[in-house]
Write a structure and sequence with these properties.
Number of strands: 5
CATH superfamily: P-loop containing nucleotide triphosphate hydrolases
Mean pLDDT: 90
Helix content: 55-70%
Low-confidence stretches: none
Number of domains: 1
Largest sheet: 5 strands, parallel
Structural class: alpha/beta
Strand content: 5-15%
Number of helices: 9
Oligomer: single chain
CATH class: Alpha Beta
Shape: globular
Length: 236
């Protein structure tokens, strides 16, 4: 079923760090711009002033001693703020919202990786997020070991270049990431309509082509979306 432009379209990207999400989101944003489609790109944690402060606490390797439930609560505090400030207004305006991570990440990392289970995550999602679900989720699942190696190299590079330290999760043991990976697979199996899993070590162009195909199938004809984009520019 094609989406209705006047209701907006909520697209999320999921996967382990190092899975290629950032690259694919940049490629998609360029494609959306070229197609003159109204869109907003955001991320979690982060994407708001409050969220960026939470992100700094959650991802900084110097942050220590968080209980799994504290970490879970912080993730949802960030998410609730992002929905209020960014996601809900953009969807109400009929835009395409592209979000790097959403509740699937929390279910995978805190529910799976931290062994909290899915139930508490999904209950908090209903309570704090009003049950808001993406229209489409792109789940990138390349080889686990390769993803971890890329993520750790990237964090080392960024720390050396600009002093940014977001390596707290990457310091976890491989068993943690295996539980995250397995939980992502569980989510994909549970929600095969919403979640499109792209597996294997495909190159950037191959993954991008699959992303565009999946989005095209859900958006339907682009003309109504393009008309909304032009109307927004005219009204501004």
């Amino acid at each position: 079923m094609a989406a209705e432009p006047n209701k907006g379209f909520f697209l999320t990207f999921e996967g382990l760090d190092g899975s290629g999400k950032t690259t694919q989101i940049k490629r998609l944003a360029a494609w959306l711009t070229a197609q003159e489609l109204p869109h907003v790109v955001t991320r979690q944690p982060g994407g708001t002033a409050t969220g960026d402060r939470i992100r700094n606490l959650l991802l900084d390797s110097k942050s220590a001693g968080f209980s799994p439930r504290t970490e879970l609560a912080m993730m949802f505090a960030d998410r609730a703020q992002a929905i209020q400030e960014v996601i809900a207004p953009a969807l109400a305006a009929g835009q395409i919202v592209v979000c790097d991570r959403f509740t699937d990440s929390t279910e995978a990392y805190q529910g799976g990786g931290r062994n909290l289970g899915s139930e508490i995550v999904l209950e908090l999602h209903q309570l704090l997020c009003g049950g808001l679900q993406p229209d489409l989720t792109i789940l990138l699942l390349p080889d686990l070991a390769a993803s971890l190696a890329r993520a750790r190299r990237r964090n080392t590079r960024e720390a050396a270049a600009n002093g940014t330290d977001e390596s707290r999760f990457e310091r976890e043991k491989d068993e943690f990431f295996r539980r995250v990976h397995d939980k992502y697979r569980e989510i994909a199996a549970r929600e095969p309509v919403r979640v499109v899993a792209i597996e294997g070590d495909l190159n950037v162009d191959q993954v991008h082509a699959r992303v565009i195909t999946a989005i095209g199938e859900r958006l339907g004809p682009l003309e109504p979306w393009q008309a909304r984009s032009k109307k927004s520019v005219t009204s501004a």
